[in-house]
Amino acid sequence: MYxxxxxxxxxxxxxxxxxxxxxKETFDKVGIKFELEVAVDGKELSLPNPNYAELKYNLLHGxxxxxxELGCYxxxxxxLKKFLDTKEDFALVCEDDIEFEEDIVEIISxxxxxxxxxxxxxxxxxxxxxxxxxxxxxLKKIHxxxxxxxxxxxxxxxxxxxxxxxAAKNLIERMRIxxxxxxxxxxxxxxxNLRSLCITPSPVNLKEELHLGNSYIQAKSEFKFPFYxxxxxxxxxxxxxxxxxxxxxxxxxxxxxIES
Length: 260
Known about the structure:
two-stranded antiparallel sheet; 9 helices; Spore Coat Polysaccharide Biosynthesis Protein SpsA, Chain A; single chain; alpha/beta; 8-stranded mixed β-sheet; about 20% strand
């Protein structure tokens, strides 16, 4: 299906049979074959966990522990470890509530051959196609209305992304101990020593019927600590994080322009 070596993975909870059925139809429609990764089920986890820094998570994220988020985090790391046991150049990592644009294979191919280097390529948006996440700045048109771009803001969600072997190694090494949800952790490319880009508009979106109000992770507001407890640690961290992001992204933007 590709002119380069890519392996696709689908992360799916064993008990989420409806999502697996939906995902199979989605992948078949665009001609992508996938390896099924049985997700780590948060219901089967317990605390303390040697790979989870609970206090740091509480302070930086301002929430109580959600075992569903731990399961999701560990599932993504498991996929990356399996990818490194292959000889493929890239891994397409997918969650089970997504839907592809019909040209997704060509979009990915064009991104890889665009001449703009990346280690991690974020492909998914949210369930609302009109709202583009992450404040993407367009770098180059690659296919029809799709551009390879650089996010200047936080891009939530890990529904679908493309990762090379260098990035997979860094993600495994630097995210071994969980202290943030997977989408927050993977979005800090300056701390992960990799270059993260995206495609805009997002060629992969979330199926509304499987995402909103029907999430197996259930990352709801009930997990949040009261505002007066969250503010003093989380707010300064978020401000510092976003300032670091801004300066790093400006640096990467300039570097890409020089390379081009």
